């Protein structure tokens, strides 16, 4: 099959499947499968080798069946960097980049600090901070073996092995982290109330790891553990920077945190929803 025929078929399949941005997705898939720059798809019309044809058709079929594009491509962009992702790890979201921006505002390039990225997933938050500020060092924490596998891949990809440790931990209060050793903690934990999970988009609900989404009955299950455990490992005045589900959830979190933390800032996402909260340890 020639390239332009393959391109027409891939686009048609994704259009008929109802996939988001089908023409764009088809071109990204073909560029990845064939090892070509996307621009080359506009003018090349060579015969496609059998092995690459099979790979392109398999990837297109996966996307048509509902698999997230990032899983099909095995990569996602976050804060201008490419991260490897796949089944078993949450796909980075654009709104989480705002959390990185806030952390860099508070700890700009050249400011030395040690931090933890709790629920690190692919490691994208920690890695972006480390790449933007070489004076930082990080501990990435997650309870998922699969997520930590992807974090290790991305740590190596970006040459961060010496500054980015990884720790498997399911109970924050038992984490082997030295008392008062962290300047700040950044986290994008599971915060979706359990009753809302079935209403998520199909490609999120059916493909992304439930443990990275399920925040318990009210979405705040893990936060309760954070507020109990983090005062021990943060320095005096240390910061907790967290992503949340929005204003309603934040109200309950502020009450939960008030004994050990002072609320210092709230940050809205691109839709005007309050998405990130910054607390300072008392």
Radius of gyration: 21 Å
State the CATH superfamily name of the largest domain. Vaccinia Virus protein VP39
Relative helix content: 25-40%
Low-confidence stretches: none
Extended strand count: 9
Describe what this molecule looks like in 3D.
The chain has 282 residues and is an alpha/beta fold. The chain has two domains: 3-66, Helicase, Ruva Protein, domain 3 (Orthogonal Bundle), CATH 1.10.8; 76-281, Rossmann fold (3-Layer(aba) Sandwich). The protein contains ten helices and nine strands. The chain has helices spanning 3-17, 22-34, 50-64, 69-73, 97-106, 124-132, 145-157, 202-205, 221-233, 247-257; strands at residues 76-78, 81-83, 113-118, 136-142, 164-168, 182-187, 234-243, 261-268, 274-281. The protein has a seven-stranded mixed sheet with strand order 5-4-3-6-7-9-8, sandwiched between helices.
Question: Secondary-structure blueprint of this entry?
Answer:
Blueprint: H1 3-17, H2 22-34, H3 50-64, H4 69-73, E1 76-78, E2 81-83, H5 97-106, E3 113-118, H6 124-132, E4 136-142, H7 145-157, E5 164-168, E6 182-187, H8 202-205, H9 221-233, E7 234-243, H10 247-257, E8 261-268, E9 274-281
Helix pairs in contact: 1-2, 1-3, 2-3, 5-6
């Amino acid at each position: 099959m020639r390239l332009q025929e393959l391109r027409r078929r891939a686009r048609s399949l994704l259009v008929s499947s109802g996939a988001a941005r089908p023409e764009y997705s088809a071109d990204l898939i073909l560029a990845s499968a064939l090892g070509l720059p996307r621009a080359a798809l506009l003018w090349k019309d060579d015969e496609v080798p059998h092995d690459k044809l099979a790979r392109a058709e398999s990837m297109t079929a996966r996307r048509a069946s509902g698999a997230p594009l990032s899983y099909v491509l095995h990569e996602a962009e976050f804060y201008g960097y490419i991260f490897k992702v796949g089944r078993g790890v949450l796909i980075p979201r654009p709104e989480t980049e705002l959390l990185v921006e806030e952390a860099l505002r508070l700890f700009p390039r050249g400011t030395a600090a040690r931090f933890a990225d709790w629920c690190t997933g692919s490691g994208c938050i920690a890695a972006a901070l480390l790449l933007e500020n070489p004076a930082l060092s990080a501990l990435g924490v997650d309870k998922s073996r699969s997520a930590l596998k992807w974090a290790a891949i991305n740590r190596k990809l970006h040459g961060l092995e010496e500054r980015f440790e990884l720790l498997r931990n399911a109970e924050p209060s038992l984490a082997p982290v030295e008392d008062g050793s962290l300047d700040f903690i950044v986290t994008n934990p599971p915060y979706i109330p359990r009753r809302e999970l079935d209403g998520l988009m199909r490609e999120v609900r059916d493909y992304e790891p439930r443990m990275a989404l399920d925040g318990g009955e009210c979405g705040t299950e893990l936060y309760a553990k954070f507020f109990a455990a983090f005062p021990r490992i943060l320095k005096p005045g240390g910061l907790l920077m967290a992503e949340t589900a929005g204003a309603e959830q934040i109200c309950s979190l502020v009450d939960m945190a008030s004994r050990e933390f002072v609320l210092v800032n709230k940050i809205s996402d691109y839709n005007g929803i309050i998405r990130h909260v910054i607390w300072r340890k008392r």
